Amino acid sequence: MKIGSKLAVIVAVAAWFEGAAAAGNLPLHFRISLEQAPNPFMPDTFRAIAADRSDARKGYDPLDVLQPPGPPTGDYLQAMSTDTGRQLTIDYRPFDPTAPDVTFPIDIVASGQNPGVSGAVVFELTNSELLEDTNAEWMVYLKRYEAGGAFAGKLDLRTSQDHKMRWLLSDAKGTLAAILLIIREPCAAADLDGSGVVTLADLELMAADWHASLSRPAADLDGDDKVDLSDLLMLADNWLCDCRQN
Ligand SMILES: [Ca+2]
Ligand SMILES: [Ca+2]
Fold it and tell me: Is residue 1 part of a domain?
């Protein structure tokens, strides 16, 4: 199948989390689409309701996931909440503004007719201006993995100009990618053992993963799927910090 020769559906994905107190809820909106394949389903079709703050504090609730309109005929892509398997138009994660540590897993799934979906996939943050309301020290990035689990790339949503992740598909069917939205405060990231303080114990955990060929290594602090000098420098920058008091 040629690029753009078949129907592709656009699914809007919304990640809801609580931002800084002054900002209240801070909805980040993500969209997946196929380039060069204009779709009759406009993203605004999927404008989601906002979760209120008290509701968000209860944590993730699958009952709050709204189902998008039924899929079109032909080939299309969907974003699925990895831990519920539901079609995803709205979701949120509990978000502690004093020690943000959010990992939001999203599966990208291709469905439709043979031979499958082809084209340039674009996964993008459509309201990046909202990041200006968050603490500038927080890391906000996307990681993408291939269907087989191989790391495919990182997009730093702080520094990206277009806030888009692009990759090519050829005759894809089923789950074709896993994307993680990660929002982390550097001190919390460096506290590898979860003790609340960055100490020698965390350094030892990093040493154990040093340059190891691991899938999603826990000691990868900066999201490039490697444990190397940049992670060590980040740990050093947060040495003895008390994540519980930030
Ligand atoms: Ca620690
Ligand atoms: Ca790293």
Answer: no
pTM for this entry = 0.75
In this structure, of 67-76, 98-107, 186-195, the range with the lowest mean pLDDT score is 67-76
Is 77 in the same domain as 132? Answer: yes
Structurally, how many domains does the chain consist of? 2
What is the DSSP secondary structure assignment for residue 240, as one 8-state letter?
Answer: T
Coil, helix or strand at residue 117? strand
43 or 191, greater pLDDT: 191
Ligand 2 centre from 178 Cα, in Å?
19
Q: Are residues 119 and 228 in the same domain?
A: no
Q: Residue 192 sits in which domain range? A: 188-245
* pLDDT at residue number 53: 40
H-helix or E-strand spanning residue 151: strand 151-156
Pairing state between β 151-156 and 164-172: unpaired
Residues 6+ apart with CB under 8 A from 225: 143, 151, 154, 216, 217
Which pairing describes strands 91-93 and 117-125: parallel, antiparallel, or unpaired? unpaired
Query: What's the gap in Å between 167 CA and the centre of ligand 1?
Result: 37
- Alpha carbon of 161 to ligand 1 centroid (Å): 34
Are residues 128 and 192 both part of a single domain?
no
Q: Are 51 and 22 spatial neighbours (Cβ–Cβ below 8 Å)?
A: no
